[in-house]
Amino acid sequence: MTADDRDCERDEPLSRLLARWEAPAVPDGLDERVLDAYRRRTGSSVARWRRLLTGTIRVPVPVALAVALLLLVTAALAFRPASPPPTAVTPSASGPVRAAQGVVPVVTGTSLAGFQPVTEVTATVVQEGTP
User: Fold this and answer.
1) For the whole prediction, is pTM greater than 0.90?
2) I need a labelling partner for 104 at 20 to 30 A (CA). Which of 11, 73, 82, 110 fits?
3) Average per-residue pLDDT for the chain
4) Angle at which helices 12-20 and 3-10 cross, to 10°
5) Which of 93, 94, 91, 96 lies closest to 106 in space, CA to CA?
6) Cα separation of 126 and 29, whole Å?
7) Confidence (pLDDT) at 113
8) DSSP state of 45
9) What pLDDT does residue 62 have?
């Protein structure tokens, strides 16, 4: 039993009045009027395709700004001039390969022909701060 129920039990005149009271009759056409008002307010009588074209979506300002910034960055990256593809430099028989300025040599294949391991490994430990 809640506090409201206890308060109603103590009020005898109110209890007698509520026992005698009858709800008024529902007017004819109330259901239709309420349904029509609901349809007018929500626009449910409008065709679905039309609601898709004229409807709105509420978006918080920070989210809209983030999406706009993302689109701008994407567009800037999409429309920037493309860098030329790297060109392969083939070694010549006359000497070692020298890369031209700005051109990176591309190795297309490797071979271990003529590989000889070192005969002696020398390691020098240099401590930081010592001359």
Assistant:
1) no
2) 73
3) 79
4) 90
5) 91
6) 98
7) 83
8) T
9) 95
- Sequence-distant (≥ 6) Cβ neighbours of residue 90 within 8 angstroms: 97
Between 87 and 83, the more confident residue is 83
Alpha helices of 80-126 — where are they, by DSSP H?
A: none
Q: Is the dihedral of CA 60, 62, 65, 70 positive or negative?
A: negative
Q: What is the pLDDT of residues 50-86, one digit of tens each?
A: 777 887 889 999 999 999 999 999 999 999 887 777 6
- Tracing tokens 């999409």 back to the chain, one arrives at 78
Separation between Cα atoms, residue 99 and residue 107, nearest integer Å = 12
58's tokens: 């509420």
CA distance 86 to 108: 12
The two structure tokens encoding residue 93? 């028989």
